[in-house]
C-alpha cells in the first residue's frame, strides 16, 4: 500500500469528524469509547489554545492528495524517573479507515516527529491486551513489547490488562 499518510495540525474543517471520533460510541468503537465526556470540550480546547503544547499534543492523520482526515495521534509527557520524561502516545482512527495500514504508519511518523523536535529518549504506547491489531501496528512501527500492566485500564465497567510498548531514540530512523 503506497497511499500517502501525513501528520498535520488539526484544522477547523476536521473538528466535526474529530469530535465524532471521540464523542460517538459507535465511531470510537469497542476499544476506544471510555464514556461520555463534556460535549464541545474538544472544540473549545482547539479554539482556546490549539492541540499543541509543551506537555503534549494532537495531530491529525491525513491521507491522500486531498489531505483527508482519517484520525488523530496524540501524546502526553510521563515521568519514568524524577528527571526522565518520555512521551506516551495514542491513536484514534475513524471506523471506515481502520485496517488500511494508516495507524502503523502514523505511529511511526509520530515517533520520528517527537524524536526530531523534542529531547526525549523514549516514546511509549499502551494498548489493551485484546487489541492484537494495535500490537501488530506498534511492532511494525518499530516499538518493542515490554510487558503486561495487569488491571491498568478501566473501560466499560471492568479493569483490563494493558500491553506496554516502547521505542528509543536510537532505534528508529527518520525518513526523508
Automatic annotation (TrEMBL):
PANTHER family: FAMILY ACETYLTRANSFERASE, PUTATIVE (AFU_ORTHOLOGUE AFUA_7G00850)-RELATED, RIBOSOMAL-PROTEIN-SERINE ACETYLTRANSFERASE. Transmembrane segments: none annotated. Signal peptide: none annotated. GO terms for cellular component: cytoplasm; ribosome. Coiled coil: none annotated. This is Ribosomal protein alanine N-acetyltransferase. The lineage of its organism: Bacteria, Bacillati, Actinomycetota, Actinomycetes, Kitasatosporales. PROSITE patterns: GNAT (PS51186). Pfam families: Acetyltransf_3. Keywords: Ribonucleoprotein, Ribosomal protein, Transferase. One of its GO terms (molecular function) is protein-N-terminal-alanine acetyltransferase activity. Residues 5-170 form the N-acetyltransferase domain. InterPro entries: Acyl_CoA_acyltransferase, GNAT_dom, Ribosomal_N-acetyltransferase. It comes from the Bacteria.
